[in-house]
Design a protein that fits this description.
It contains 11 helices and 2 strands. By secondary structure, it is mostly helical.
């Protein structure tokens, strides 16, 4: 009788253990299915966006073909459209923003991690991160009413005077100082993306092992040499990734650029002249677009911006993978 009772207890425990393992396996399978569904949903949404842009662009693609990318004309009355001024403005303003944001953002990160007193690191770091949360329309209003007049009065006249006799630069900084224009829009974009570069660079700088820096200081290196020969080489992949992320943000920015770029559909040799970007053109004209061809041309602009951003970020990713392989080798 005792053996029968012990056998029943063991069987009950085995059944409970089997149920527990089965429940855990069910939870694991459910979690895997949930995360897989989220990943597939992102791909489906991305595919839906591409498909809708392509379908919406078909009338303009059939009407203008490849000339849409090479023509400067933008005339809704005659329904003649070309994307070249918008593409030029998008790339040039993003490049100016990158030239402004990359050194300033990396400099902020170096100061916060290597030079800033410990008690000030958190308040300054939080202040930099809060800049990323300011709505872009606020930057646009500030740029139009405060920054552009200051640029018109204090920046553009000295640039025109300084480079007036210098080949190439005399063309880039020529013309009357309007205040608004491609250069001002690039500066505004640069200020907007500085927090992205600074925050990511600070985070990757903090991953440098303290023993490496202490060893360098022990060899007699100063702070600049430690940053130059230890911190930057150790974190260059992360820093470049942060800069590329900021570039992607700058390419698609709309409201701030719309306020200060001047919204002129033409390509001028001077950076001080008004221009436009793809996102600014779409924002300004989509509500006023009448006719299928006009609307389709604006949608094709969106498709071009999508591919520009996609290929630039893909190229950046390939660059990072190459750097990682070189570091591993």
């Amino acid at each position: 009788m005792v053996d029968v009772a012990i056998g029943d207890v063991g069987r009950d425990r085995a059944q409970k253990l089997a149920k527990t393992l089965s429940w855990l396996k069910l939870q694991d399978d459910g979690f895997r299915l949930l995360t897989l569904s989220a990943a597939i949903a992102v791909l489906l949404i991305l595919g839906g966006v591409i498909a809708s842009l392509v379908v919406g662009s078909l009338p303009a693609i059939r009407a203008f073909g490849f000339d849409f990318l090479t023509v400067q004309t933008w005339n809704p009355v005659t329904e003649k459209f070309g994307a070249l001024p918008a593409i030029y403005g998008t790339l040039v303003t993003a490049l100016i923003a990158l030239l402004v944001a990359a050194p300033v953002g990396v400099g902020i990160a170096i100061f916060l991690t290597e030079l800033c007193p410990y008690i000030l690191r958190r308040p300054i770091g939080i202040g930099v991160e809060l800049l990323a949360g300011i709505p872009s329309i606020i930057y646009g209003i500030w740029g139009l009413f405060l920054f552009a007049p200051a640029v018109q009065k204090y920046v553009q006249p000295p640039l025109i005077a300084a480079f007036g006799d210098v080949p190439i630069l005399s063309t880039l900084f020529a013309g009357p100082p309007y205040g608004i224009g491609i250069l001002t829009a690039g500066f505004i974009l640069g200020i907007m993306v500085i927090p992205f570069v600074a925050s990511i660079s600070r985070d990757v700088f903090e991953t440098v092992p303290a023993v490496l820096k202490e060893a360098a200081y022990g060899q007699g290196c100063n702070t600049w040499e430690v940053v130059r020969f230890i911190v930057i080489p150790y974190t260059r992949t992360g820093v470049i990734g942060g800069v590329m992320l900021a570039l992607g943000r700058a390419l698609g920015e709309t409201m701030a650029v719309t306020f200060v770029i001047g919204n002129a559909h033409r390509i001028a040799g001077s950076l001080l002249a008004p221009g436009t970007t793809i996102s600014a053109t779409i924002a300004n004209e989509f509500t006023e677009a009448v006719g299928d061809l006009y609307t389709s041309a604006l949608i094709e602009l969106g498709l071009i911006l999508f591919f520009i951003t996609f290929f630039i970020l893909a190229a950046a990713r390939l660059l990072l993978m190459r750097l990682e392989r070189q570091a591993g080798a």
